[in-house]
């Protein structure tokens, strides 16, 4: 697996881990929000997945099998299942990315962008990280356990490193 694929595996792992962590929360905790974030926890996770689907469509031209849109309500169990399928879509896209030619049409203040495949891939990583941080900020603001979604924890989850043994005297 190359460096680029590892970056996307972190994106996949971190989003799954965040969903699984949030499945342990109460409905009241899931409704929490704090200024400066996207909003409540489930709508934020819904937004992560919905935008991922839009980015995948820009790369492949294919709609998601189970569309997720911000205007609808989803349970974390539903989002977890969608994310599992979406993760496989990302892996497939990464295998085929060199054959993809992407041109983004003009939109709002943005001009047409040719050769946009790297931009779309970059946006997927940055967007996911940004909004996972929003959820963690909400959790931390209310004194709830914040999942550790950093690269080190991902690396440990792959078995590449293990926790250090405590020093003995």
From TrEMBL:
Keyword vocabulary terms for this entry: Metal-binding
Record flagged with keyword NADP: no
Gene Ontology molecular-function annotations: metal ion binding
Transmembrane segments: none
Domain of life of the source: Bacteria
InterPro entries with a match to the protein in the record: DinB, DinB/YfiT-like
Any Pfam family hit: DinB
Protein's UniProt keywords contain Nucleotide-binding: no
Residues that coordinate or bind a divalent metal cation: 47, 127, 131
The family this protein is said to belong to: Belongs to the DinB family.
Descriptive protein name: DinB family protein
Organism of provenance: Polymorphospora rubra
């Amino acid at each position: 697996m190359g460096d680029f694929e590892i970056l996307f595996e972190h994106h996949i792992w971190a989003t799954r881990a965040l969903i699984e962590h949030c499945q342990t929360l109460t409905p009241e905790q899931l409704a929490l929000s704090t200024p400066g974030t996207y909003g409540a926890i489930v709508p934020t996770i819904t937004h992560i997945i919905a935008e991922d689907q839009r980015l995948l469509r820009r790369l492949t031209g294919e709609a998601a099998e189970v569309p997720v849109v911000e205007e609808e309500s989803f349970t974390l169990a539903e989002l977890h299942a969608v994310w599992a399928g979406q993760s496989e879509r990302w892996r497939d896209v990464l295998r085929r990315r060199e054959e993809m030619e992407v041109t983004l049409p003009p939109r709002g203040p943005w001009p047409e962008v040719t050769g946009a495949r790297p931009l779309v891939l970059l946006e997927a990583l940055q967007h996911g990280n940004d909004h996972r941080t929003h959820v963690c900020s909400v959790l931390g603001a209310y004194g709830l356990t914040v999942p550790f979604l950093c690269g080190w924890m991902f690396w440990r989850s792959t078995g590449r490193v293990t926790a250090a043994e405590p020093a003995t005297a």
